# Entry
Amino acid sequence: METVLLKYLPEHAVHPCFELIKANHVHLKIVDERQTRHGDYRIRPDGSHQITINASLNKYRFLITLIHEIAHLVAFEKYGRTILPHGAEWKHTFQHLMIPFIRPEIFPHTLLPLLARHFKNPKASSDTDATLALALKQFDERNTEKNYIFEIPYGSTFRVNNGKVFKKIALRVKRYECIEVLTGRIFLFQPNAEVELIAE
# Structure
């Protein structure tokens, strides 16, 4: 198991992650990419714990996602099944489990201050922390056909994964306001959303 984890995690995170997986009796499945989520946790019919994580994640995002999902398991076991999935108990558990990993042997120096800030009050997804999400994306194997929405000019049209076409209009606080070309409906996009620019 540790040799498998070495492919997906920073080297110095492998052993402590393996110990967490073992201590919590986790059945870890590494799966093909799902567009809607990086990972998930569920109890299987036999009562065992299963965590699935996308194989396509870079090592740093994989680590954060793994600890995120283990935090669900630990929080439910400790506080009961009635707690909110991303409530105070989960946040406290996630912080507690993540702190030992926020060090220079595991994460690049550029990420450490962003992680320290994020884990003061962790969100349901690291993707909603646009600064951290962008910093993490720098370590992805980049799909050269895609652009981040913040990179493309206002007025340009782009396509998203489901094939819908939008035009970028304006920045509203931290998100970009875009109009769906077919329906005229307005949608808000995170700055780090990956889109396919359509040549005019």
In short: The CA atoms of residues 164 and 184 lie 12 Å apart. The radius of gyration is 18 Å.
